[in-house]
Sequence to fold (156 residues):
Amino acid sequence: MSDNQWKTCCHEAGHAILCVKLEVVFDCVRIGPDEDDGVVDLTSTPIDDPDDDWTTEMLENYRTIYAAGAAAERLVFGSAREYGTKCDRKCHAKIETMLSEGRSNGFDTDVHKAMSLVTRKEIERVAATLQSTKRLTFEDVSKLLGVPLPWTTDIR
Fold:
């Protein structure tokens, strides 16, 4: 595996870990055959369904989740790849426009927030498993982190 693909695994692990910790369910996180090919398949987002009844807390959680890939890269490698965060920045900016606080260009603020919610050890554990399996579900990441699923307390 190339250095870039490992960075992609860590980046996507950051998103997945924050989803689990903030209880934002996703179908799977996966990496593809290309070095930079990775994605978390969220079940629903404010961007996909802006007319849904999104609370301020939910929008703030999504904003932090979009910043979590860059946060993971900074924690593990010291910096984030600009091209690796381009899509995340666009999604983050869309979420910012949905919040009434009127903040814009707060991506770096949310990267720091995300950095306070994850650890390098968690990122590397999830990324290593993602590297070997190429695909993890919400349940898989919950188990790796030892976090109970939101709909049960059994994490066996």
About this structure: The mean pLDDT is 90. The beta strands are 26-31, 38-42, 135-137. DSSP finds six helices and three strands in the chain.
